[in-house]
Design brief:
By secondary structure, this protein is α+β, with helices and mostly antiparallel strands. It is 17% helix and 32% strand. The protein is globular and about 45 Å long.
Length: 231
């Protein structure tokens, strides 16, 4: 598979897809999948430098299984599991970095999450994982550590909405194209990082580490013109 970043025309993220994560953020459990977008420019490929924390931002990590779309999908029937799974070219591990204080403000005021989710470097991504390496996407163990202390560690079997339903709901709104990334939600254990922290993450299947899934990235403070202001 070619470069994940260069091929991704859009990144679609499923929100609130693990019950314990919903509880830890005091969010409402959705009755149907809901999703938001991250820009392609937020993708941080392997070995591409640190995650950059803008001034004033409370920066959180969220580890997620990512789907790499290989075939165009539009108006997918949620019962058509075969077509849904056939449209997946492979997998990756992603970390949905989030400016939590900006997201909290957006939630309170009913505003979009684009700023909270969209900064450059806010999506560290692993190498592409061959589809055959994860034969059952509901039997993958996601983990993430900060400075070698495990913070997230859960199975994808805990997803509230399965992949056909996610892809169906998205494809009824926007056509999914080859190269698009779908982030499938994060389990419990999200938290903050500071400059100097080192994030490590990966996927295990039946106790075996998937080498292509491994991410190791540091966090630095970002220089630039961004100023944190109330909306």
């Amino acid at each position: 598979m070619a470069s994940i970043k260069s091929n991704a025309r859009k990144v679609v993220c499923i929100g609130r897809n693990y019950a314990d994560h919903i509880k830890e953020l005091n969010s409402a459990r959705p009755q149907q999948p809901f999703f938001f977008l991250k820009p392609q420019t937020s993708i941080l490929p392997p070995n591409s430098g640190p995650v950059l924390r803008p001034r004033g931002v409370t920066l959180h990590y969220e580890v997620e299984l990512a789907l790499i779309i290989g075939k165009e999908l539009r108006d997918l029937d949620e019962e058509d599991e075969a077509r849904a799974m056939d449209a997946i070219e492979g997998y990756a591990l992603g970390i949905d970095m989030t400016a939590r204080n900006l997201q909290d403000e957006a939630k309170k005021k009913g505003l979009p999450w684009s700023t909270a989710k969209g900064f450059d470097t806010f999506l560290p991504i692993s190498n592409a994982i061959p589809k055959s390496t994860i034969p059952d996407p509901y039997n993958a163990h996601l983990y993430l550590s900060i400075n070698d202390v495990v913070k997230q560690s859960d199975s994808t079997e805990l997803m509230l909405f399965r992949i056909p339903r996610m892809l169906s709901d998205i494809s009824k709104v926007m056509t999914l194209e080859p190269g698009d990334l779908i982030l499938t939600g994060t389990p419990k254990g999200v938290g903050s990082v500071q400059a100097g922290d080192v994030i490590k993450a990966g996927i295990k299947v039946d106790g075996e580490e998937i080498n292509e899934s491994q991410i190791e990235v540091s966090v630095n403070d970002r220089e630039g013109c961004f100023e944190l202001k109330e909306t």
